[in-house]
Protein 1
Amino acid sequence: MAATTAKHYFSKQCTFCLTSHLFHHNSKRVLLAKRFKSISTKETASPIQRKESTAWKGVIGLEIHAQIASASKLFSGAGTHYGANTNSQVAFFDAALPGTLPVLNKKCVEAGVVTALALGCDINLISKFDRKHYFYADMPAGYQITQYRKPFAVNGQVTYVFQCSKTSSVERRSAKLVQIQLEQDSGKSLHDPQGGLSLIDLNRAGIGLMEIVTAPDFVNGDDASSFVRDLRDILVTVGSCDGKMAEGSLRVDANISVHKPGEPLGTRTEVKNLNSLKSIRLAIDYEVRRQIQILESGGVIENETRSFDVEDNETVPMREKEKILDYRFMPEPNLPPLVIHKDWSTTVATRNAVVLEDIRSRVKDLPDDKRRCLEEQYQITLRNAVIIVRANLFDLFERLVNKHGCDPKVTSSVLRNVYSVFLNKLGVEATSSPITDNILSEVIELCQNRKISEASVTEILDEIVKNPDASCSDIINKKDLWMITDETVINAVIDEVCGKNPSAIKGYKKGKTNQLEILSEKVKKKLKKKVSTAIVYRLLKMKLDDK
């Protein structure tokens, strides 16, 4: 009933009472952004250079806003379904109607605690809620209930896998967390400058958020986006957030500065609302380059808030030079301190108690635990372990190896190169795959014995989807997928390829060893990849060395 009434209220009132003020406010904001972008372009005089000075080092800290996966909001019983009709999930409290009071959602607290434990944080057994005052129409009360001053979790540390977008190298790194706090999400403003309207959708207002604040431990966009990717995997694993950045479930603000090693940190800028891993990487790298160019040209970095223009791949000013903001923090008078109990001995048996001992038992095997298991127990490389775990194929890998006796390295190769692509094409998870473990183990054994190639596995799996009763051997015979081992046949194709590529042979003779790889790929393509790379490479090298 509350949601229905609120829907009626906002569908009428947002166009009557809020429109003129919001349009004026947001039109001014849009014009300011355009004006500052123009000024910024004039100031820099030339495009931001992509080559970075080695004398400078980026210093990046992140604030990650993760929506809590809960059926109802942090302080009200309104729903949280994404994509619901505008203003259909709004309780009286979310709309800040007079006389309404917050009721803390226990499930949101437990989600926050399980996240904090997974991220190695210390839990404050007593934490407090504050009011952070600011006016914007998507926060109807004029304040946000948050835990900025006394959060429930502090001092975390996260191990993540750094992946370089340029070299594809991978390595483990770690980053410190300052704190995790519970707070309300805001609503969403819908702007139509041409029509002169700004409307408010409060469906998101009041959804529980975990704000995860890191130390300034990152140096570039690859570093920061690698951390966020692993953080998202952890949140999804423990079930506290669905991690859907495209839907706004996970949003990132980046605080960015540059300095020379040994010197004080530089003036920072904040880039707001980055909602994809690509945007995080591009926005940070652009901002680092922009700041370096300004400083090397004798300019000064202004402490400002910026946004990322995804069309131009550059950051643009959102607001003028930052001033000290007085949010007038005050204790939330309608909520008592949040108490988290160590175990049941410190509390009476009540369904509202949040007990650390119980929540700790819910922390599942985390992504890095699984990666280490693949590395240490099965000698899988870190790069391959990352792919298997991220594709949710770890459990399947262990069943194939331990129950069906498959070779770990061949299994890893088939799962990461073929099966993960096959599942993506079908749009299903491994748990919903039409391919049984028995079939997978059979094709892996055939690959292991070099009777079929990995390229043929895709054809076999596609055919089984169409004809579930077909056997692997029948499909291989029908499609002629058996590996070619006759060296006479292979040498004939090698002669044909070499005859058509004399320049590659000349290049090889001059020391360009990469030509051997290029010719090898051409031979395998001619043979429809039904041939061992090692055999082709050996026979091709013998032929070229004899010439």
Protein 2
Amino acid sequence: MKQNKMTGNPAQLRAIEHGEGAACVIAGPGSGKTFVIIKRVIRLIEKGVSPGSILVITFTKAAAIEMQQRFTKETNSMYPEVLFGTFHSCFYQILQQSGSRTNNTVTIMREADKYNCLGHILKDLQAREKINHKSVDYDKETIKLLLSEISRVKNDGAGPEQASKDVPLREYFPNIFKEYRSLMKEQSLIDFDDMVLMCHDLLSSNRDVLRLWQDKFKYILIDEYQDINRMQFEVVKLLAGKRENLFVVGDDDQSIYGFRGSRPEFMLDFKKHFYMPKEILLDVNYRCSKEILEGSLKVIDENNIRFKKDIKAGSQNRGNITGLTFEDKDSEYSYIADKLKNLSLKNTAIIFRTNTEATAMAKYLINRDIPCSYRERITLFYEKNGVSDVISYLRFSNNGFKRSDFLKIMNKPVRYITRESLTDDTVELSKLAAYFVKKGRMSTADSVKKLERDVRMIRSLRPYLAIHYIRNVLGFNKYLKDKYLSDKARLDEVMKDLDDLMEQCRGFEEYSEFEEYLKEQEKIKEISKNTDFVNKEGVKIMTMHASKGLEFDNVFIPDLNEGIIPSRRSISAADVEEERRMFYVAMTRAKKELCLSYVRGTKENPSMRSGFLRPLSEYFCTAR
């Protein structure tokens, strides 16, 4: 390969020219990390390294494809042997190509199968727990949280006994975990997390296979290293071997995937794991204006667990941070909607901590005919757990006793009604009670008779009073308190959602009015179907997690209130620091204009601004 003169700032060139051994490149937002990785691969080839011995690992398929395309363009497609891939694709390749040595048959489990598998386990658990009358849910939200915790436990290399205290059904989690693994093994299925574990077991136990892959990948480069989890780290360390030609690029201040087992310590402790590694700071931010960079650094500097960094602005953009206070969300969202009229929407983003706030903003903009698009599917307020259950009660009572509605509510609270008892598309409660009498299950029959009386009452009340009845008389509130016994923050969230639902229903005299209102909200779903996010016209609405890796001229970050960011569920110091990193990530998406805002509330119902805004108090002199 003909040698080209490398360009870049001094720190970038030090990283690109790094020779043998381990190197940790700390690359803040907009510092050119992708540029450095591609140029380093080119430089290695110029030095005589075989292209087929270079492995570049990213965390997403999209990032791997983009990086490979940029490399291919710069090298005129001369070196297709360089392997670009995600952790999972690389581990899958190792397992597949080592199959003849290990007799491993790798079949990846579909997401739907995970939910079905865990749902089956929870139904069995519910049947077993009749003795102490505990509420064992197997709704979609519970399954999602359990699957997330199963994934975290696997990625941490921990035992199920070390599960988070907040996980649903905590006391049963070890059994749920073991049964889940057992069912998967019986059906010869694995998930993506298992690929990491299997790869680790394979490379740890078979020296010949390990030596084969160490000889294959003599140079390993990893992008977004701050997102690595323990088991991925252990496999990478095995592959690097004694050569330790491991070149990692990342930013500990952007480590925001703790729920997947990622922690900034893997980057901060790099020196402890490798022999005399080189540490390089890419100290120029080419994205953000000087004002935005300085403001974001003031925020992240409050964190204790981090590399201290002296970063300079390389962008010549003139920028501005605006801090605003609003009495309520309506005035806050109205201000943003008015500002959007004078901005390039495709270069503008509105970033929220959670999908709940993003949904509210989307609804507001849609009602004002302002184009917007989502990076990911947004969960509607009416699809949220708790809210959707109450709506199903209303719909079942008023819309012809449909089986589809009844399935969502029949055991909320627990009545021990089985799916097998529902044979028709319409549920006749008197007939259902008779079924359980015939089976000799009198307590369930009595529960169904009570439900029949409750349904008649719900049908006779206007929506606001009907929801009050469902929550306080029928027993739904008590059911929720039992369900979230070990997670008060989640209980508070659900209860607030139900309070909001009641307020939205206050003006409806008839159920039919409420049903029409729900149909109106379905318009929001159409927005979430957008797939061409980056090039889509319209303002981009997204969560802080989804914003990572993107950049915009103009960024709004509303709803910066305590309890939203940091989340009320963030109790430990580590949790709070991760929440602050999320805010930092959101701030550093802005190139020119950054607008931060929060709601102060009223005297009767005050709201507190986020503690993360304390270093930025000088910007919050305007109330609206």
